[in-house]
TrEMBL record:
UniProt keyword terms in alphabetical order: Cytoplasm, Lipid biosynthesis, Lipid metabolism, Metal-binding, NAD, NADP, Oxidoreductase, Phospholipid biosynthesis, Phospholipid metabolism
Any one biological process term the GO annotation gives: phospholipid biosynthetic process
Name of the featured protein: Glycerol dehydrogenase
Parts forming coiled coils: none
EC number: 1.1.1.6
Record Gene3D superfamilies: 3.40.50.1970, Dehydroquinate synthase-like - alpha domain
Organism: Anaerostipes rhamnosivorans
The keyword Transmembrane helix belongs to this UniProt entry's keyword annotation: no
Enzyme class: oxidoreductase
SUPFAM superfamilies noted in UniProt: Dehydroquinate synthase-like
Pfam families: Fe-ADH_2 (PF13685)
């Protein structure tokens, strides 16, 4: 066992050829998936079922679409983060049990009791639902592009910045109950993440197993504490604001890699460790890789405090000290140097508010 036993809310089933085994025992179920995933794996689904193809995770969209599925007996959420979150939301609002089948590990959505939804393009975490089981099919996970699975390690790397914010929060607002045991565990997780980077990059069985067990460790404590501030704090707030500024979704673990880079620098907290781990993992946090401009990055940083206060997000380093234009200029220059980024005509050499 890589991590100590914490609880039993998140039951994992590891194996191969799991979809036929799961669905052989189900009938009149609803599959919530993206179109590509459903087409790829529909022949493995047994018995009578309906399918909902996820368009987005705007609550207004799902509130309208869910009306067609009142009669189903259970929900199978199958895909990446959006499909899993949509499935959780629909299962909870239908009052049905859910079986989660992540097809990629780019985000820890299957291991969260809350659903990451959107309300008018702003990320909003809501609800409370636990799966009957999470099915980790090694062949299915390994069938996804490697870079997608590797990027999920960014969600684990978030423990580096989030645990710092959690301690800070405990000394100021105390809005999220603190535990030194969990905070120490987050540092242990980071050490184990570093040890398992080669397996993660290969997306071999050991790498998949490590990531899922790490996600489960976070998830089981989240069920006990009713929050996950040791894994989701200033770096996730920065991600939320980048999505708001850019008006587009991101590959979750990839954007979290970027936000851990900047928030660890802002915290003056293990920053070079974060840089080293991002490079070893090979998570592409460049402007080109993320499909953003330097201006958008600067705007995301310069408006971050206003965004967190407007949205009522938890107290973190973002609230503790100002993010100045001078700091942003320095931070962006360092980022470009660290990752070999050269400004082009679409980006600015200096940040402006």
């Amino acid at each position: 066992m890589i991590f100590p036993h914490v609880g039993d809310q998140f039951h994992l089933v590891y194996g191969r050829n799991l979809l036929p085994e799961l669905t052989a025992d189900l009938n009149n179920y609803l599959v919530v998936a993206d179109g590509f995933v459903y087409e790829k794996y529909k022949e493995q689904l047994k018995n009578n079922h309906q399918v909902y193809i996820v368009k987005d995770v705007e609550v207004s969209t799902l509130e309208q679409d869910i009306k067609e599925y009142d009669g189903v007996d259970t929900v199978v959420a199958m895909g990446g983060g959006m499909a899993i979150d949509a499935g959780k939301w629909m299962a909870e609002h239908l009052g049905k049990k859910i079986h989660s089948v992540p097809t990629v590990l780019s985000v820890n959505a299957a291991f969260c009791y809350k659903s990451a939804m959107r309300v008018k393009n702003v990320v909003t975490y809501m609800g409370r639902i636990f799966p009957e089981a999470i099915y980790i099919d090694f062949d299915i996970i390994q069938g996804a592009p490697k870079y997608l699975n590797i990027s999920g390690a960014g969600d684990l790397l978030a423990c580096l910045t989030a645990s710092y914010d959690w301690r800070l929060n405990s000394m100021v607002t105390k809005s999220h109950r603190f535990s030194q045991e969990i905070c120490d565990g987050a540092q242990y997780l980071l050490g184990m993440l570093s040890e398992n980077i080669d397996n993660i990059r290969e997306v071999n069985d050991d790498g998949i197993y490590f990531m899922c067990e790490a996600f489960r460790w976070v998830a089981e404590y989240s069920a006990k504490m009713n929050h996950t501030m040791w894994e989701s704090a200033s770096e996730h707030a920065f991600f939320d604001n980048m999505e708001y500024v850019c008006k587009k979704p991101f590959l979750h673990g990839q954007i979290i890699g970027l936000t851990v880079y900047f928030m660890s620098l802002f915290q003056d907290n293990q920053h070079e460790r974060a840089v080293m781990m991002l490079k070893r993992l090979g998570i592409d946090v460049t402007l080109e890789g993320l499909g953003i401009t330097e201006d958008q990055l600067c705007t995301g940083l310069l408006t971050l405090r206003d965004f967190t206060e407007r949205e009522g997000l938890r107290y973190t380093i973002i609230n503790a000290k100002p993010i100045t234009k001078e700091w942003v200029d320095m931070a962006v220059a360092k980022y470009k140097k660290d990752f070999g980024i050269v400004s082009d005509g679409q980006t600015a050499d200096k940040c402006t508010a």
